[in-house]
Design goal:
This protein is an all-alpha fold and 136 residues long. The chain has six helices and no strands. It has helices spanning 3-24, 30-38, 49-60, 70-89, 97-104, 116-133. α1 (3-24) crosses α6 (116-133) and α2 (30-38) crosses α6. The chain is elongated, with a radius of gyration of 17 Å. The chain starts with a helix and ends with a helix.
């Protein structure tokens, strides 16, 4: 999936989770909504398989990723665990790391790996788009 498609898919998924939480009364304010949304399971890892493969290679070679946001670092470490498990389960795997990552990034993720503020910004943007489509 291309970066722009990934961004739009992530925004749609976050807004869908927000709407579900709103309907279920899972948060008391918009401020707490961002925190709640970001901690919900995501339908996939919103990262390109090539990028994930490159970052995983850096982590596996013990290269410290200074510029990587803590949320992104958690995501890559989660993918690293899944990659290691995949290799244990498929000891004769001849696929490249990037090819394996193509499968792994499509799996459901335990969270969205963003900050609460980022979640709120995405939700605000989606709400504006919905309101713009209303006919008054």
């Amino acid at each position: 999936m291309r970066d722009n498609e990934l961004i739009k898919a992530k925004e749609r998924a976050i807004y869908a989770v927000y709407k579900r939480g709103l309907e279920e009364g899972r948060f008391s304010s918009f401020r707490t909504a961002g925190e709640w949304v970001r901690r919900q399971p995501a339908p996939r890892f919103f990262i390109d398989s090539r990028t994930a493969s490159l970052l995983l290679g850096k982590i596996r070679s013990k290269e410290f990723l200074m510029r990587l946001h803590p949320s992104s670092r958690r995501m890559i470490l989660c993918l690293d665990e899944r990659y290691a498990r995949y290799l244990r389960e498929h000891p004769k795997c001849a696929l490249s790391r990037e090819r394996v990552m193509e499968f792994l990034v499509e799996e459901p993720a335990p969270e969205f790996y963003i900050t609460a503020e980022s979640a709120r910004k995405i939700i605000r943007k989606a709400i504006r788009k919905v309101r713009e489509k209303w006919d008054y």
